[in-house]
Amino acid sequence: MKRALAYCLVILALSLIVLGAATGIFEPQEMLAYDFLLRHRPVQPQSPEIFIIEISDDTLQGLGHWPLPRDYHAALIEALNQSGCRLIVFDILFSESSDSDTRLAQAMQAFGRVYLPFAFRIENQGGEIFAPEVLGKVAAGLKNAVAGLGHINIFVDSDGKVRRLPLWVKRNQQRWPALGFLAASHFLGKEPASITLPFNLRSGVWVNYPGAWSKTFRHFSYLDILQSAAALKNGEVPRLDLNLFRDKICFVGLTATGTSDFRANPIDPVYPMVGTQASICNSILQSAYISRLGIFWRALIDLLFFFISLWLVLKFTPLVAFACFVLLAAAYLTLAQLLFNFKGVFYDIFLPLLSLVLVYSGVLLVKFFREVQARRLLEKELEIAAQIQRNFLPADLRDIGELKLRLFLQPAKFVGGDFYDIIILDDHRLGVFIADVSGKGIAAALIMAKAISLLRMLARDIADPGALLSALSNHLKPDLDSRFITGQYLIIDRRDYSFIGASAGHPPFIFLSRQNGQAAEMVPASGPPLGLVDNFAYAVIGGKLSPGDKIFMYTDGWTESRDSNGKEFGIQRLKNILIRQADQGVDQLLNNLKQAHDIYRAKASQHDDLTAVILERK
Fold first, then answer.
1. CA–CA gap between residue 102 and residue 320 (Å, rounded)
2. Which residues of 494-511 are buried (b: 16+ CB within 10 A; e: fewer)?
3. What helix, strand, coil percent values describe the chain, rounded to 5?
4. How confident is the model at residue 443 (pLDDT cuts 50, 70, 90)?
5. What are phi and psi of 302, to 5 degrees?
6. How distant, in Å, are the alpha carbons of 73, 138, 277 from that of 92?
7. Which of 85, 275, 518, 593 is surrounded by the fewest CB atoms within 10 Å?
């Protein structure tokens, strides 16, 4: 079932990746990655034959508001004709007729190599860009004077940026080339249809912007050219040497502030569209194109990334896998930037990196849920183990003759190493044992189970507490494996309530005398903990319980408990509490002691088991 679920998840992930690559659902994110590549590559070489003539703020201040009289355009063509310019490309729509069209047409015909634009309303029809309507025509008086007509349509993406334009637009069974494409092909003496470059009839051609507007192409002022031509006519020294324009392609466009011929591109938030046509022309002259891998290869890369990331996260620990993912992502981005810089090729970046994140997160999530499930099973098993451990302990005996008993055990974990036992030896004698196995958890609990079983077996035959501890130590020593047990054993005779006891490395019990209200430590350790030394003779100490006297047997979890500052509870604090509660019954005494201990520990975690046995003679 689990394997089938894993296969289903893998198939679902693969389907989503292929679907993402095929449908372009992540196209906005991929375009942001494309912009990153474009901005972080060096400024690209530009053809020295391309000049841009700007109708900028200085031109409108010197010649008047837009649109300028077409006599000025005629004068510009005449000046460039005199300079030996090769091609003039106007990125300006001349849709309406004008009184100056005759002169402008004459200047165009005299030069013979002027190109004008028009614009369509375009649609995607049958996988090709189709123009149902012409929006920006060329005035009738100028059509026959031009060397060629090209469209200036662009594609504006959802974020408002211009990254592509249609290389061809179909209108009435005729395909019209982009203006910059047309100019470049005629500059090379070719027809546009004979030039092969990477483009798609539906999605167009990627505009290979060589750099920011201010850093690419040579820019000249429209006004400076006119003034320089006038100065030459008047025999004056021109401001600009017009011989610079010999054999050049001059793109004339509007760049004045507040005019409408601006769009955002991946590099500049405000970019004159004349630069877009110049960039297309530059790509052809430099044979420097941008191409995108096809859907098949992009999907293949996406799938490869998916399987690599899946292999990494399954083979290595989460931390090592994360480091591998960071290195893999860095290498992938570096390769993408290098291929884009030197080959003009780009492929999906966002989707492969997203697959890294999703695979890493998904596998970690699956591992997390498995861990939670395993932990729940472990906790359930530990609860069963804790119940089994509690079953090893004696029943909750409360009154044996004149003796009151109260037993308490609170493990630091589900199971612990502390234990106690009450053994009815005969009609008159009662054995009381308390012990603490070194360490905590399952291992300590298993040792506790064996120790309590041996204790009950040996106590039937050995009436001396010291001899019993020695025998118990001998039996346990082979199995403890460097562990040990501290223990204390009392035998109480209910005929006169005298007692004898011995201790193996265990804290002395506290004797609360009703007569003098004092707390005395009795039966101190007379030898090493159990399991360390063979045949050790533990000393036996005796005493007697008078009516109202109490014995408090405990493990060191009480005195070694710490508050939030790491300070121990301590034996003296324990004695003081017991003295203050000496007149209370055993139930109240135990409750008050637990409450005082919890208040002292506050939010600090319990780091050791807490065990206590309280005996009182009525």
1. 76
2. beebebbbbbbbbbbbbb
3. 45, 25, 35
4. confident
5. -60, -45
6. 11, 10, 12
7. 518
Answer yes or no: are the C-beta atoms of 149 and 116 closer than 8 Å. yes
Q: Which residue has the tokens 């026959």?
A: 144
Q: How far apart are the first and last CA of the chain?
A: 64
Average pLDDT over residues 156-176: 92
* Whole-angstrom distance, CA of residue 29 vs CA of residue 352: 12
Q: Supply φ then ψ for residue 41, to 5 degrees.
A: -95, 160
Q: Determine whether 392 is exposed, middle or buried from the number of CB atoms within 10 Å of its CB (0-12, 13-18, 19+).
A: middle
The model's pLDDT over 84-114, given as tens digits with 9 standing for 90+, comes to 999 999 999 999 999 899 999 999 999 999 9
Question: Using an 8 Å Cβ cutoff, are 484 and 435 in contact?
Answer: no
Angle at CA of residue 58, ends 57 and 62, nearest 5°: 120
423: helix, strand or coil: strand
Could you tell me the two tokens for 351?
A: 């989707």
Instruction: Work out the percent of the chain whose per-residue pLDDT is above 90.
Output: 48
**Dihedral angle sign, alpha carbons of residues 308, 313, 315, 319:** positive
Of 204, 187, 197, nearest in space to 148 by CA: 187
For 169-217, write each residue's pLDDT tens digit: 999 889 999 999 999 999 999 999 898 888 776 778 999 999 999 999 9
Q: Give the span between the Cα atoms of 156 and 344, in whole angstroms.
A: 21
Give tens-digit pLDDT for 345-364.
998 888 888 888 877 887 77
Residue with tokens 């100490």: 541
Concatenate the DSSP letters of all residues of 386-412 into one string. HHHHHHHSPP---EETTEEEEEEEE-S
